[in-house]
Specification:
Helix 1 runs parallel beside helix 9. The strands form 9 sheets. Strands 5-2-1-9-21-20 form a 6-stranded mixed β-sheet. It is built from 11 helices and 27 strands. The protein has 422 residues and is an alpha/beta fold. The structure holds flavin-adenine dinucleotide.
Length: 422
């Protein structure tokens, strides 16, 4: 009887899906099993648009089974992985243990609260679709409550939003929340004054968008301040509680809405493994993406810590996609009796939106800001989104929802605030 090699991929995100595609193409005789706690793949760069009711959740989520449909040797199982036994070569899941010959860790990352007092319990994360929907419901709900509130101080508290972290996610959220609340009030809440809305963006470092060139951080700062966002640089959030946040300056801000966009850390799947130092809980890998001492274990995407030049590769979708593809191809190389190849990242640049027609972008030595950067952002994300959903209809839906402010995205649907990353 023919002996099949079993390859298990943990996570159907950017890295996991690309690993599956590479294995379907390059190792058709291997039996590949992709595991994910959700039955869909999430296009995370647009999560903030779901959280701010600009688009519908379905616009950025796609069933994993549909992605895998044409891959004859790849199967999917909806299950949560709790542990991996590297000696026995088994993956522990919700519904039992699965043996592997090769395994690819691609379970991504989770929110990093940096031990901030009360942050986990009293702020909203933005790591997955359930968190984005919960935040959207909460934002829409607080505006409804404000509309029914006669007390000025209480109304002002309800209309205050604090966003923690001035990286791309915080900056994008600040721009989008300001637009959402002000537009909604202008269209649907004649009893409220848009000037009552306060959006604060709190960043502990000296500038916004620390990973970008300084002039792009300055452009983001100017844009957000011009649009009424109260940007606090060099101030850290020390405590988050029911009433709001306390800052390192001693100031307290009353709000029911704290959005935590200050950082992520890799998911720890194997408690026995020590993460690389100063690498956000990521696992150090060899240039081939293998775990040292475990040639049948690969790590890709946000879980992997790999240096290229002087710096660790960033936790970004293109890094995840390219590493996933490389990990899949390297398993195929091993199966063919050849040595796996070192990974080399091809940088496509970084971008962040500031509003509906404004963005900053850094592509190699070129920096762009304003409308032209937004067009570049739109081109890249929409091409990626359509590629991933493989349907032009998605593009039409997205454009409709985004530009015509669809009211469908502004419905409040009960959902659990608890992230599925907890
Ligand atoms: C709000 C936000 C905005 C972002 N914006 C950008 C951007 O604009 N550009 C950019 O390049 N990057 C962006 N990123 C970063 C990007 O999303 C990540 O770098 C990328 O998703 C990493 O890919 P991955 O495959 O490692 O992880 P993911 O894509 O997160 O996939 C991990 C998968 O593993 C599954 N999983 C997790 N734990 C388990 C478990 N125990 N059992 C089973 N399955 C599990 C998850 O459900 C998920 O499907 C953003 C991230 C966030 C949160």
């Amino acid at each position: 009887m023919e002996q099949h090699v079993n390859v298990v991929i943990i996570g159907g995100g950017f890295a996991g899906v690309q690993a599956a595609k590479a294995l379907a193409r390059r190792a058709p005789a291997a039996r590949v099993l992709l595991l994910d706690r959700n039955n869909y793949h999430t296009f995370t760069p647009l999560l903030y648009q779901v959280a701010t009711a600009a688009i519908q959740p379905e616009d950025i989520a796609y069933p994993i089974r549909s992605i895998l449909r044409r891959m004859r040797n790849v199967a999917f199982r909806l299950t949560e992985v709790s542990d991996v036994d590297l000696e026995r070569r088994t993956v522990q899941t919700d519904d039992g243990s699965i043996s592997y010959d090769y395994v690819i860790f691609a379970a991504g990352s989770t929110t990093n609260f940096f031990g901030t007092d009360g942050a986990q319990d009293h702020s909203f994360g933005l790591k997955d679709l359930s968190e984005a929907i919960a935040l959207r419901n909460h934002l829409l709900g607080t505006v409804e409550r404000a509309a029914a509130e006669a007390d000025v101080a209480k109304r002002s508290r309800l209309l205050t939003v604090v966003i923690v972290g001035g990286g791309p996610t915080g900056v994008e959220m600040a721009g989008a929340v300001t637009e959402l609340v002000r537009l909604m009030i202008r269209h649907d809440y004649p009893m409220l004054d848009p000037a009552e809305v306060q959006v604060l963006l709190v960043e502990a470092g000296p500038r916004l968008l620390g990973g970008f060139q300084p002039k792009l951080g300055d452009a983001a700062l100017r844009y957000l301040r011009r649009n009424g966002v109260d940007v606090r640089l060099g101030q850290a959030v020390k405590v988050v509680d029911e009433s709001g946040v306390s800052l390192s300056t001693g100031e307290s801000i009353e709000t029911p809405t704290v959005v935590w966009a200050a950082g992520v850390e890799a998911r720890g799947l194997v408690p026995g493994l020590t993460p690389a130092p100063h690498a956000n809980n990521r696992l150090a890998v060899l240039p081939t993406l293998q775990l040292e001492g475990h040639p049948q274990v690969y790590v890709a995407g946000d879980m992997a810590a790999l240096r290229q030049g002087n710096a660790l590769l960033p936790m970004l979708a293109p890094v995840g996609m390219q590493q996933g593809r490389c990990a899949g191809e390297n398993v195929a190389e091993q199966l063919a009796g050849r040595a796996p190849k070192p990974f080399r990242y091809v940088d496509r640049g970084v971008m962040a939106t500031l509003g509906r027609s404004n963005a900053v972008a850094q592509i190699g030595p070129v920096t762009l800001s304003g409308f032209i950067a937004w067009l570049a952002w739109l081109g890249l994300h929409i091409v990626d989104l359509v590629g991933f959903r493989n349907r032009a209809l998605v593009l039409v839906n997205w454009i409709w929802d985004y530009f015509f402010l669809t009211s469908g995205a502004r419905v409040i649907i009960a959902a659990d605030k608890k992230s599925d990353s907890d």
